[in-house]
Amino acid sequence: MLRKLYYLLPAKMRFVARRALFLPIDLWDSWTGKRADMVPPKGMIFTGSGDFVEQGKRLLELFKDIGGLQPDHRVLDIGSGIGRSALPLTSFLTDKGSYQGFDPIEKGIVWCKKNISSRYSNFKFDYIPLKNDLYRDDGASAANFKFPYADNSFDFVILTSVFSHMVSDEVQNYLKEIERVISPSGIVFSTFFILDKESTSRSERSSFKFLYPDGDHWLMDAKVISANVAYEKEILFEKIIASAQLKVDKFYPGFWSGLPKTSCKDFQDILILKKP
Questions:
Q1: Which domains are delineated in the chain?
Q2: What pTM was computed for the model?
Q3: Alpha-carbon distance 94 to 88, whole Å?
Q4: Which of 131, 133, 126, 111 has its CA nearest to residue 77?
Q5: Of 105, 106, 191, 199, which shows the fewest CB atoms inside 10 Å?
């Protein structure tokens, strides 16, 4: 119910509503000095849920354990938000490694430049104003966006809760661009909502379900297209990913559809992608 009410708000008002909701906590944390260094106020965080710092640490462990992230890797964080993944990476990547993030929400990029790039010269952030009706009503099309990075620039690409908010032509374009900018041995850590017979059956018994077919994907909310987007497994693996000259190396189902949390790595499904 709260999710549906949130989606009823105009994109810009969703940020205002969150800021207002957490204002008392943020004021208290500021007065008491409770908020840690480089951690944004709760009202400014627009991606993810739970404890910002702990979620970042958990993601870093997944990047290392199932993605094979190394301290000297050149990392591209697509949808870098307000630094949830960047923050723990500051204590993991060495001077030989590097981090590049980009996001369509300017306030997140401004925060990261001020609080992270100012301390770590090998951490850079780009503001790319792309349209996405969950976060903004204007901007360029993600389906036609060419990444502003050279071929073979990165060893490790992160997309956490990015493809779950993008429709199929946007996903296809991003995957093709990712294939271009990663090295021959590059690794892609990505999350999706993936539909097969089992996950669909489980989700029918929960409140987290995708009821609206829309081309090569399914929508949770027909009015806010990018709110949550799911893909049928066969179409995703054999059509969308394969057309970008990438392959699925590992697949870890998430607990979004009703699987026990203890048997899953994360809420969303995780795909590790590589070049063939």
A1: 48-274 (3.40.50.150)
A2: 0.91
A3: 12
A4: 126
A5: 106
